Amino acid sequence: MARFDVNAARAQRQEAHGRAWSFELDGESYTLPTELSRATAKALRKLDDNDVDGLLELLMGEKQFARFEQHDVTMQDIAAILEAYGKETGLGLGED
To answer: Is the pLDDT of residue 96 over 50?
Structure first.
């Protein structure tokens, strides 16, 4: 039986999807990771299901999130961002 090479599989995923997914808002670019570390997954579990700001800050990091917060963003905008992110990366965040 052949051994599964985790590093090769990760490299293949990152080649297909890149290391970051990006979106633009009011002429500014933002990036989210295409893969989540175990530490990030643990931190996500600790968030309240309705903590949208906590989710975004965790994914974006403090500096990006501080810039993002300066925009007048609706919950529908955030839902659209998370939906597009999920479709591109296979990560289902913000879903029931």
So the answer is: no
Instruction: Report the C-alpha gap between 40 and 7 in whole angstroms.
Output: 19
Tell me phi and psi for residue 54, to 5 degrees: -60, -40
Task: Please enumerate in sequence order all residues whose Cβ is within 8 A of that of 22, keeping only pairs 6 or more positions apart, or say none.
Answer: 29, 30, 31, 32
Structure tokens of 18?
């890149």
**Contacts by 3-6, CB closer than 8 A, 24 or more apart:** none
As a whole number of angstroms, the distance between CA 48 and CA 3 comes to: 39
8-12's contacts with Cβ under 8 Å and 24+ in sequence apart are: 10/35
Q: Where are the beta strands (DSSP E) in 17-62?
A: 20-25, 28-33
What is the rounded CA–CA span in Å between residue 94 and residue 79?
A: 8
- Span 53-65, pLDDT tens digits: 999 999 999 999 9
Q: Measured between alpha carbons, how far is 76 from 31 in angstroms, rounded to an integer?
A: 19
